[in-house]
Amino acid sequence: MSKTFSLTDSDALLVIDVQNDFCSGGALAVPEGEAVVPLINGLLRKFPHSLATQDWHPRQHKSFASQHPGKDAFGLTEMPYGPQVLWPDHCIQGQKGSAFHPDLETNSLELVLRKGFRAEIDSYSAFFENDRTTSTGLTGYLQQRKIKRVFLCGLATDFCVYYSAIDALREGFEVYVIEDACRAIDLEGSLDKALKHMRESGVSLITSTSF
Ligand code: VGL
Ligand code: ZN
């Protein structure tokens, strides 16, 4: 029988980027992205604390292929901080694509953390931007709230969920990824790579039936 969790005041659900642009019909649609919404709503009802991230880009964000003439979306470019995948324009500040999926029950969220708002740096992780040094401030927030275990869900498994999970470990939290409440982009094997790296690093992969 699989482990069931009894949740306490030091547990938080971290809902990653459940936004229109990552769901069907969106600018960077993740296959079946919207399928996570009912599961996450169920989790939100069970968790004592929950927070969400929102990918939140200025119109001319450097992660957009449109800002690199001659380059295609889903290709790579070199940024001052290293290689960066180029994306279709997505999650633009204030537009419908950056809004949460309309069925996501956001009332119990205690914090909404926006990321990716600096035009020059992308930010997959909820903790550090893609230069791996610029902090979002989330570690301090969680520490001051005395959160010890972080449970992640949302979009996409192999990018923002993955980077957030690895950074949460690095920041000293106990980390769980609720796999069936995530969906992946899966660019050239990125999902398998992310799952393997998470397992090897000490992230526990669990399912929403554990609650
Ligand atoms: C994401 C690519 C670009 C994500 C965000 O939420 O996983 N992926 N921006
Ligand atoms: Zn983005």
Automatic annotation (TrEMBL):
Keywords, comma-separated and alphabetical: Hydrolase, Metal-binding, Pyridine nucleotide biosynthesis
Pathway annotation from the record: Cofactor biosynthesis; nicotinate biosynthesis; nicotinate from nicotinamide: step 1/1
GO molecular function: nicotinamidase activity
Classification via InterPro entries: Isochorismatase-like_dom (IPR000868), Isochorismatase-like_sf (IPR036380), Isochorismatase_Nicotinamidase (IPR052347)
Residues annotated as domain Isochorismatase-like: 12-209
Transport as UniProt keyword: no
Pfam family membership, one: Isochorismatase
Annotated EC: 3.5.1.19
Signal peptide: none
Entry's family note: Belongs to the isochorismatase family.
Protein name: nicotinamidase
GN (gene name): pncA
